[in-house]
Each structure stands twice: as structure tokens, then as C-alpha cells.
Amino acid sequence: MILRLDGSEVRRSEFTKYLAGVEARGEAPLEPAARAGLLESFLEERALVIEAGARGLLAPGASSDEERRAVARLVAREVKTPAPSEAEIREYYGRHEAELARPERLALHQVLVGTLNEARDVKRRLARNPKAFDSIARSESKGPEAEAGGYMGVFERGQLPAELETFAFALAEGATSDPVQSPLGYHVLRVDSRQAASAQSFEEARDEIEERLARRRRSEAERAFVAGVMARSRVNHAAALRIPAS
After folding, report:
1. What are the φ/ψ torsions at residue 127 (nearest 5 degrees)?
2. Is residue 97 one of the residues assigned to a domain?
3. Is the pLDDT confidence value at 123 over 90?
């Protein structure tokens, strides 16, 4: 026995089977420290399954999917958190105003080709007719966004591959880059629009702050609920970890 709660038990063989599945997916034996780390989440999961069954949310012999759904219903039913107050939201804004600023963003197109000569040819064609970017992307680009005329989307710093980011954020609005090499090939980039970093007013940031606070409060409440269930459980960590690596 590695866990007992309300008359139900979890045996070491269940943890052994769980570890075997994890190792099979990773195609390598787990180190002792990794097994110890997985034990806590396994015990919490099984304790919540037992708790869901004790509260009538799960029938005996349920499948793994049914167990997960029952645990989700259990947590949703038992964990209730009040919405953040106006004062809390304003206090958060005062402490995190700089963090809440909108970062610099740009909208980006690309033509991706296989060789430097192809990229130079694309650049020359665009120099003659900048409006041909979409048609060239559709006919020449090897990128997944070729059918959309090369439109990649809107990006902040840190969201683009490192090979492209420096060049993209150095371009002026409407400008086209020289060929940029990456492991995928050669890119010709165009910045369609830029949005400079800017502060958000309280009203602009209010919904985001409320969501952040609610998410943090709920996470804390869920952890407290799990801790309460585990506090009622008898756990034998030593027995669980006397499992040789497979």
C-alpha cells in the first residue's frame, strides 16, 4: 500500500505500471529523482479519484477518461473563489503598470525559398514591383503560409525564430529584408505594420488584470483543496520508491 484514503487503497503495483508507461513514452528508464517527482502528482491524482468516487461522482471500474472527467467535476464543484474586488484590481495595476504595457508588435509576411540565388531573385523582383509580394509568395514560397500570400501573423519579441527576429524588428514599416538564412532555407521578410510599445490605462488593462487575479486565486484554492485531501490520506513514500528502474 502506498496510499490509503477513506478505506480505499492505492498499491505499489499501480505506480509501477504508471512509471512503465512514462518510461515507454520516453524510451528510457527514469532516474530516481524523476520517479520521486512523478510520485507526488500520481498520489494526488489517485487521491482525487478516490475522493470523486466517495462523493458519488465516479462509479467503480471507470475508465481513465471517466476518472479525469470526474476529478474535473469534483474540483469545479468544491473549489469556489470570489471574484477579485475593484480595490484588488486597482492595487495590482499600481504595482504592475510597467509589466502591463503593450509590447512592440509587427505584422509580417515572408517568402521562403531553398537557395540564396532564389532569394536574391525574389528580392530583385520585389524591388521592381513591391506590390507583387503576395503573388510571389503564393507561387514561389515553400512556407506553410504561402497560400495566404506569405502572411505569417502579428508577433512580439520572443515569438519569432531567433534567426528571423533581429532582422524583422530592424525593418521599417513597409520595408523588405535582404535574404535571411535559417535551417528552413532563405527568407525574404516584409513588415506590413508596426505597433510601438505603449502603456495601458487602467480601464484598458482591467479585464486582463481581473483574469490574472482570478486565475491565480483559483490555482491557489485548487492547491489548498488537494492539500486537504492529501492531509486525510496515509501515504507511504518509501514503499512507492522501492521500485527498481525498468
Report:
1. -65, -35
2. no
3. yes
**Residue 170 is part of a domain; what is its CATH number?**
3.10.50.40
Give me the domain span that covers residue 7: 3-81+218-241
Q: What is the pLDDT of residues 44-79, one digit of tens each?
A: 999 999 999 999 999 989 999 999 999 999 999 999
Residue among 213, 232, 189, 199 at smallest CA distance from 98: 199
How far apart CA 86 and CA 88 sit, in angstroms, is 5
Q: What is the pTM of this model?
A: 0.64
Strands (E), 73-142: 105-113
Same domain, 133 and 185: yes
Nearest to 221 by CA among 110, 115, 84: 84
Residue 245 has pLDDT above 50, yes or no: no
Helix residue ranges per DSSP H, 62-182? 64-78, 86-96, 116-128, 133-140, 162-170
Asked if residue 139 is part of any domain, the answer here is yes
What 3-state class would DSSP assign to 217?
A: helix
Q: Which residues contact 116 (CB under 8 A, 6 or more apart)?
A: 179, 181, 186
CA torsion angle 212 88 72 41 (round to 10): 70
